[in-house]
Known about the structure:
Layout: H1 31-34, H2 37-46, H3 49-56, H4 59-66, E1 71-74, H5 81-88, E2 92-97, H6 100-112, E3 119-121, H7 127-130, E4 135-140, H8 151-164, E5 165-176, H9 178-182, E6 201-209, E7 212-219, E8 224-229, H10 234-243, E9 248-253, E10 264-270
Parallel strand pairs: 1-2, 1-4, 2-3, 4-5
Antiparallel strand pairs: 5-10, 6-7, 7-8, 9-10
The structure holds S-adenosylmethionine.
S-adenosylmethionine (SAM) binds next to α5.
Amino acid sequence: MTFVRDSKFSSTDDAQRFGDLPETVRETDHYQQEYIEQFADRWDRLIDWQARAKAEGDFFVRLLREHGAKRVLDVATGTGFHSIRLLQEGFDVVSADGSPNMLARAFKNARDQGLLLRTAQADWRFLNRDIHGQYDAVICLGNSFTHLFRERDRRKSLAEYYAVLKHNGLLILDHRNYDRLLEGGSAVGNGKATVYCGSDVEVGPEHVDDGLARFRYSFSDGSTYHLNMFPLRYDYVRRLMGEVGFQTINSYGDYEHSHNNPDFYVHVAQKAYRFDDEPPQI
Ligand code: SAM
């Protein structure tokens, strides 16, 4: 598959390229330039898998089982954290991601644990071009949806997730509590959703406005990487999900129903048609 590449950001030496004005980089395609091989390698140091597994507990496994999901499409595989966990729990998983670097790393991580990952390189905006079959659940986790900068891209991606789901399928999508960040609060509060745990990395926002949250990831070996992301507001994401056709949307804060200023939100959007006269239950 082909990606639109902007020559001003093109990278030949495996370094991130944001140009002279990094805060002006607000492009959906730019994720390809951000998840370079070196960063993919360090991503697993950024994320302490054991600490993350502990923080999540069996939240996603339980949720999927409660809805009878067996066949799961991980659209933001990254280095494979959830794909591997779900395979170990007996789910039938296909692991997609737009970044070949991240997929290669995920494949290796799975192999190191004696598992074979079924991977597919696919950009969310054209998901159904590259992914075939129907799924009980689509997962888009680890603050991934935030990489889409245009509303058109967000709508299209959600529509592509919707299309690949069975008639009663489930979309599980998470994001940081950007509302708090946009209102001047910190990226990490007292929340229990310790997604980004790791002893040799510091993660923090470098710039935040309504159209950009630029995060810095500084590793103890002196290397520094950045991700430019779109700050998704809680109400906005739920509204978009309803507008593309999801009928019921339940949202959680740090893996709990009652969300009191969490670090992360998880939205669970159901496709199953509601026969009552109520509008989509969000
Ligand atoms: N889910 C993983 C986790 O929780 O560790 C990975 C999260 S990582 C923050 C975001 C992932 O989304 C990256 O692997 C990136 O390549 C992928 N991604 C970003 N934009 C994408 C797009 N438009 N299509 C497909 N994948 C995309």
